């Protein structure tokens, strides 16, 4: 693990390329009030049911950090697009895209349209992502 001395973000690889630039969180939710309510609900569930995490608001998206960056969130007007690492490919109609990151890890992408989408199944997937080393 490597911590950038400028922005204090933690990465798996030493001197991993990244941008240290952040933006105010609210900038992601301009004209996206519904997405903000979904984000707040998801963030509270993660902190309550999985573990404490820190919000890093980057120009591209919002990242949540536990021990490392475990979840990327891209707010849309009527939904949240989320991306997380997972051990293997999840076989579920909820998953919209899976991309191999390594021989063991898969970047998993799905959309959240309503609070009910933030269910026990999703929380379990995110719990496993949060716990990856």
Structure in words:
The protein is an alpha+beta fold and 133 residues long. The protein has one domain. It contains two helices and eight strands; from the N terminus they run E-E-H-E-E-E-E-E-E-H. The protein has helices at residues 33-49, 120-130, and strands at 2-3, 10-11, 54-57, 62-65, 69-76, 79-87, 95-100, 105-112. The strands form two sheets. A six-stranded antiparallel β-sheet has the order 3-4-5-6-8-7. A two-stranded antiparallel ribbon has the order 1-2. A hairpin with a 4-residue loop joins strand 7 (95-100) and strand 8. The longest helix has 17 residues, at 33-49. The radius of gyration is 14 Å and the shape is globular. The relative contact order is 0.16. The model has no long low-confidence stretch (mean pLDDT 92).
